[in-house]
Design goal:
The structure holds 3 protein chains of 3 kinds. Chain A is mainly α. Helix content of chain A is 53%, strand content 0%. Chain B is built from 14 helices and 3 strands. Chain C has a 3-stranded mixed β-sheet. In chain C, strands 2-3 form a two-stranded antiparallel sheet. Chain C has 2 domains: 30 residues; 194 residues, Alpha-Beta Plaits (2-Layer Sandwich), CATH 3.30.70. In chain C, strand 2 and strand 3 form a beta hairpin. The chains are: A mainly alpha, B mainly alpha, C alpha+beta. At the B-C interface, helix 5, helix 6 and strand 2 of B face strand 2, helix 3, helix 4 and strand 6 of C. Strand 2 of chain B pairs antiparallel with strand 2 of chain C, so a sheet runs across the interface.
């Protein structure tokens, strides 16, 4: 029994390692398309934003709603204006900034059921 | 005193599986309704901005109120020391759990954002009676489970009375809370009354016992167990007392309202010219739900026969559904009194009786909740010994002696 | 010139009394900067003189345009943040109309009943729904004496950037909080003063130099359902 289990484990690990070495993973799973179209920095360093943007959003939304604090730096409207795609003007969609990572990580978000995902003001494609 | 012997039902017959299949189909229909409501929005239901609580809430409130009352038989046995009812206590506790589960399922699946249930369980506004009710309902599951455990586990039998007292008090608070959901609202003329809390308590006694009687009769008949007249007659008498109590509270509620000039319009609506609501009140709630059952239960012409008791229980249930419908939907259909002595009109349907008709998704969801409660009961009866082997007169009297 | 102590103190007190309201005015009169929280020193309110209200409904159109409240042609389930209500006295036949929206009560029943605390009253008196925590139970819709709340019955698209709205939550007039926080007036008031009967006034009820405060102090006004003692932020004249 133990030998059988060890054999199965060896085969599985071998296949996984083989696939990894062949770098075939990238072609089967769509990696997120992170297109940063506005050159200036984000409101916080990239690593911090990647790790903590959800906590930031969770805290900030209460500060805005309950206390009326509307610092432009933390406004969701501001995030969307900067990160919206040049072509579609949206942060959703196939290569949308928010949706492509979220689809890859399979983490659902319902922000944009209520908030508009579209850049405001200038038409899509024109730099702000 | 001969101890009562409990046994699971066999649950192997074609009839058993057919019953489970039918209930399962109804549950699936309810889930499908909830799914489409969540995806497409409540626009597919008959509910509107004037009638925000519709048929699902009627079923949910009915089930939740009945759940609390279904525990009555066990309370009478443990808390008030009537040993005669002891063999029925386990089924009573089971029904309390399953009816509450069915009611809560309907309520939760009807939410505008049901996926936010976890938000509801972690963010509490303690001024809201709704928030308190969430605690009370969840706690009720725990308290009744504990109570049942003291009954099942022989070594814990000594604690049954204490657990029973806790469960009894808990459910009084819970039902007061459910009635207060409506009683605390100043916005609607049909609500805003301290009387609604005690009314809901006696309603729970009445509806819960009616469901208990029917489930008991069906379970015994279909599992081939004896059910003597002695048990049924006592339960029937108890049911009659509760039905009379409900009638009393309803009478006082309407009598008081008739004395208050501001309430005259809503009273006229319910008692006289509210169309379907008036019909449901007089024919459903008063006639089928109170007067006919009282006649069936107490008139010597019927002699307390099992058939009469069963018919009375059915009447109480139908009348109870009518009562909750008139309260919840009728209470919303009547326009809110914002400008006394003025005729009011607006694009938001102010000043007019709101139109409402139950839609298929709503009915499917509500009936699905009932089916869930019954299905859970059926499965539980097969898995654990909730029913006594025999409730024949001789056995019951000897165990109570 | 000699000044005895009592005289000096009397002058000092007089000067302080004269200056104090001015100091308070400076505190409140400036529009709040985005980094400042809403303050309980302010209480936003509306004063509506319905004798100037005719059949016009520019307030309704402006509100729904500003907030992206578009109908689907289904009046029973479409949201309405403000509506014109027509009244006719049953005995005398006297007819009036008035705009009715969330009254932004000081003791809002909707806030009391919300199980998650999503319905809340901001420090400066504006009653809002936090859509992040709203579970769509509609208890607040049952509880509101003014039928001010709407439940969003179907999916919403094309939301305005300043006004998030979504299916399955409850919403109502926000007193255009996004405009108020920028120092502007609500859209309904602006439209009424521009194109309508000039019936609506907006301001800080706590600010003694505000027009609304002065008018409320010197002219009669009333609340809808005053018997409920909710101390609404919206007051009416001519009701």
């Amino acid at each position: 029994m133990m030998r059988f289990a060890a054999a199965v484990l060896a085969v599985v690990l071998g296949l996984a390692g083989f696939a990894d070495a062949q770098d075939r993973r990238a072609s089967r799973v769509a990696l997120p398309a992170i297109k940063i179209e506005k050159g200036e920095a984000c409101v916080a360093p990239t690593g911090e934003m990647r790790r903590d943007h959800m906590t930031l959003l969770l805290r900030q939304r209460d500060r805005t709603m309950r206390e009326g604090l509307r610092e432009p730096r933390f406004s969701l409207k501001n995030c969307v204006d900067c990160h919206a795609s040049r072509e579609t003007g949206s942060v959703l969609g196939q290569d949308g900034f928010c949706s492509s990572c979220h689809a890859y990580a399979s983490v659902s978000m319902d922000c944009f059921e209520c908030h508009t995902p579209l850049r405001q003001g200038a038409t899509a494609g024109a730099p702000k | 005193m001969a101890s009562v012997q409990y046994r699971e039902i066999d649950g192997r017959s074609g009839g058993f599986y057919a019953l489970l299949a039918a209930l399962g189909a109804l549950i699936l229909a309810g889930l499908a309704a909830a799914w489409t409501m969540e995806h497409q929005g409540h626009v597919i239901t008959g509910m509107s901005n004037r009638i925000v609580w519709g048929t699902p809430h009627v079923f949910a409130v009915f089930l939740i109120v009945a759940a609390s009352g279904a525990l009555n038989v066990a309370s009478v046995a443990s808390v008030f020391g009537r040993a005669f009812y002891k063999p029925l206590a386990r089924l009573s506790g089971l029904l309390a759990l399953t009816l509450l589960a069915g009611g809560l399922a309907v309520l939760v699946l009807d939410l505008g954002r049901p996926e936010r249930l976890i938000v509801a369980m972690t963010h509490y506004n303690f001024k809201s009676i709704f928030a308190w009710n969430i605690f009370l309902y969840i706690g009720f599951f725990a308290v009744v489970a504990l109570y049942l455990w003291t009954m099942f586990e022989r070594r814990m039998n000594g604690y049954t009375k204490r657990a029973g007292v806790l469960a009894f008090l808990w459910r009084l608070v819970l039902t007061t809370g459910t009635g207060s959901i409506f009683g605390f609202l100043v916005a609607r003329e049909a609500y805003d009354s301290a009387l609604l809390a005690p009314l809901f308590i006696v309603m729970s006694f009445s509806f819960g016992l009616a469901i208990f009687v029917l489930v008991l009769m069906a379970a015994c008949r279909w599992s081939g167990r004896a059910l003597g007249d002695a048990v049924l007659r006592r339960l029937g008498n108890l049911l009659g007392v509760f039905v009379a109590a409900v009638l009393y509270f309803v009478f006082v509620y309407h009598l008081t309202n008739l004395y208050i000039a501001r309430q005259h319009e809503v009273e006229r609506f319910i008692l006289l010219d509210g169309g379907v609501y008036t019909a449901l009140f007089w024919i459903g709630q008063v006639l089928a739900g109170s007067i006919v059952p009282l006649a069936l239960l107490f008139s010597p012409a019927f002699g307390g026969s099992p058939r009469a008791i069963a018919a009375a229980a059915v009447g109480v249930i139908l009348g109870g559904l009518a009562q909750v419908y008139v309260l919840i939907i009728g209470g919303q259909a009547h326009p809110q009194l914002m400008f006394p002595d003025k005729e009011v009109a607006s694009s938001f349907f102010d000043g007019v009786v709101a139109a409402y008709a139950p839609s298929l998704p709503e009915v499917a969801l509500g009936v699905g909740g009932v089916a869930l409660a019954l299905a859970l009961t059926v499965v539980a009866l097969k898995v654990l010994p909730f029913l006594p082997r025999s409730l024949a007169d001789a056995d019951v009297e000897s165990s109570a002696a | 010139m000699s000044l005895d102590r009592r005289q000096f103190l009397a002058w000092g007190a007089g000067a302080a009394a004269a200056l104090a309201p001015g100091l308070r005015l400076i505190e409140l009169a400036q529009a709040r900067s985005p980094e400042e929280a809403a303050s309980a020193l302010q209480r936003w309110g509306l004063l509506i003189d319905i004798t100037k209200c005719t059949d016009c409904d520019v307030c309704v159109t402006a509100c729904h345009e500003e907030n992206g409240v578009s109908g689907h042609g289904r009046p029973e389930t479409d949201a309405q943040w403000i509506r014109k209500v027509s009244l006719r006295d049953k005995r005398t036949g006297y007819a009036q109309t008035l705009p009715l929206m969330c009254q932004h009560c000081e003791h809002p029943p909707c806030v009391d009943v919300c199980p998650t605390g999503a319905s809340f009253r901001r420090d400066d008196g504006i009653v809002l729904v936090d859509k992040h925590t709203c579970i769509g139970c509609r208890y607040c819709v049952m509880a509101c004496p003014y039928a001010a709340r709407s439940f969003v019955h179907e999916a919403v698209s094309g939301q305005k950037a300043d006004v998030p709205r979504g299916k399955g939550t409850v919403e109502s007039c926000t007193l255009c909080v996004h405009r108020v926080d920028r120092g502007e007036t609500p859209a309904c008031v602006e439209a009424c003063n521009r194109d309508g009967g000039k019936a609506m006034a907006f301001g800080d009820l706590n600010d003694s130099s505000a027009e609304i405060h002065r008018r409320l102090k010197s002219e009669p006004s009333s609340q809808v359902r005053a018997d409920l003692a909710l101390n609404t932020g919206v007051r009416y004249q001519g009701l």
